[in-house]
Amino acid sequence: MSHSAQPSPADGDAELLARFAAGDQSAARELTDTLLPGAMRQAWRMLGDQIEAEDIAQEAMLRLWKQAADWRAGEAKISTWLYRVVHNLCIDRIRKRRPQVPVEDAPEPVDPNPGVLERMAQGERAKAVAEAIGELPERQRQALVLRHFEGLSNPDIGEALECSVEAVESLLARARRQLAKRMSEQKEAFGHD
Amino acid sequence: MTDRHEIELDAALDALAADVAAASPRPGTDVMARVLADAAAIAPAATAAPVVELRDPANATASGFSLRELFFGWAAGATAAATLALVVGISVGMQVDTGLPLMAEDEVSETGLFAENGFLPDDIL
Fold it and tell me: What's the pTM?
């Protein structure tokens, strides 16, 4: 199974952050090289806009710099912490896009931007699965995306989604069943790339 | 879900993941520069620790002075002053006049003789 990105080594990230907190600017550059592409890719996938994705990624990294001196190594992986920050910033941005709806009446943004994956898909098979992913419940879609597009392990997904590994396994299993069902219904499109 | 469905699903997910990876924008130099500028702006607060000059342990003595300092540096002055004070003190001590007359050699032997026999002259007692 191929992934679009591999998570950065957690210990290496924590060590770099500690070096940055001690005043080593070269550590900031290394962390930026490692973490910024993933943060930006995630924001772009959720928002579908490159400029906004850059703003979100910059803001997330700024929060990381501010957190550096107080970072407690071993409690959380920096990559999953950053994922949560980017996710929350994107949700806030999506809510601001709909100012005409009162907050109490606004539905939970369960589907930040399902069309982005479909726009990225090239072949018919990829388009079909992208469309099916867009119809998944939010938690199942998040787990699937983190597993297949960000390459996170189940424990890391659990940390990012703040749930147990067993819950992640359940989310992934249900997501895959749902996808398989949808795709068998689209049998005509499936396998004709 | 059958094995065939599993394989087909994995193949479709892999194809989509490859498309996503190819289509995802990479951070441009401007956003990289902005992020690093943020880091530089935050960094001074994190570098409050004082800069400490490290001493080469190979040149340090047990007391913390290097040998060069001991013989040629400020420590040499302190060492010289302490040595001079010691010499002067000894010299003065040797020249102290107690004001008592020194005994002649015969007086000393006489005193020893009387002392051995259990009595001493009245002027000595």
Answer: 0.61
